[in-house]
Amino acid sequence: MKSRTKFLFSAVLFGSIVASSSLLLTGCGGDDSGSSNQSNVSQMGEIITPHLPNLQFGSVEFKNGKVLNFTWGIGSAAAHRQGDDEKTFYTMTDRGVNIDCKDAKDIIGIDICNGASGVIFPFPTFTPPPTIFKLRLSDDGKSVYVVDVIPLKDKDGNLITGLSNPLSNFQEIPFDKDGNQLNYNPNGLDTEALAIMKDGSFWIGEEYAPSLVHVSKDGKIIERLVPKGLETELANANYVVKGVLPSIIAKRHPNRGIEGVAISPDEKYLYFTLQSPLDNPDSKAYSKSRYVRMYKMSLTDYNDIKEYAYQLDTPDTFIQDNKNTTNPPKQKDVKISEMTVLENGDVIVLERITKTTKLYKVDFNNAVPVPADKSATLETDATGITPLSKTLIFTTDNYNDGEFPSKIEGMTSLGNGKLILINDNDFGIRGEDTVIKIINLK
């Protein structure tokens, strides 16, 4: 059968998402109230599930005749700008539609990669760029509609791809839908975290390098900050690349890079976090360690970066994820997926496996940085290190199974105690919907 690719809209028609009346649906959503067993964490107010339009993306037919239909996956990150009203917020995609080679037979029905380790990009010529969505709640809070779509661009205004970088510390082979190996792309970003400044510019955390990316309000990359030493490997990127981040974070485990960013209320500092422990000295440490590195960086002096240790919970404490007793989660399954800052400066961290999501208030004000001589061995020896103090303020385990979506990756504060939670549906590869929840911390 001749392979075909069908696009429901192209990159040059992003504006049609905003204009389409089909994306503005009001009065269609329902409310989900939290169950009464919430008292052992905090009394939550009403939990709202606003209706989100079905953002169709495109379909692909693979060489075995299997057709997959995709929807936009906009929940890899979330952000809210100081001064905006409580109904306006931003979310972001990750690097686009991709299927891990090891999952290809299960999802597509054939081993497209012929046993190789890598990732399949079904839309390599379309190059869907990592994209920021500006969203707004309807007046009744029961629906969400798209206000603007901001694809990321290089310094010349060309759309950024999500294809893998040519990095020595990241040997992920990119393939197209027919199993042909693609070229690496120095401009590519695997975006996973989002924060917005008062001037409308964005700070993005990404996984490839890993890196921090400063982006103008129209989506053009201003600069990309990478671990010291990696800037030479991305010298061909069509934007500014600076090697200023701690070199040790280049040891991030594949696809476990920078997963959360947040800006202090005075905009003097940027907080950011890795998703998991590092491969330091190797992947065995990543699998067993409970210590994730978090950072506080001055936005006026990138060399002023303080490192902190965050201690993950043990996997047995994630109740919903432990219901499958034949395959219980392991320590490496526990991860950080987001962080945000409240108006009073409190930092909230999202810790999860798949079904269970926990929110912790983390105390950076009284935190003790990791001593320089201890940083090199944090994953294997935390002797003499004081981890960040954390207080549980919310867990989805206090609700019935199914009341919250799996794989919640986006979180931001709307102000006045309200938080947005949104899941990453992986562009609907397995048929998952994008779900938004609004919880009230008061």
From TrEMBL:
SUPFAM superfamilies: DPP6 N-terminal domain-like, YWTD domain
Pfam families: Phytase-like
KW Signal (keyword) present: yes
The name this protein goes by in its record: Esterase-like activity of phytase
Phytase-like domain residues: 85-427
Alphabetical keyword list: Signal
InterPro entries according to UniProt: Phytase-like_dom
Top-level lineage group: Bacteria
Keyword Transferase: no
Signal sequence coordinates: 1-21
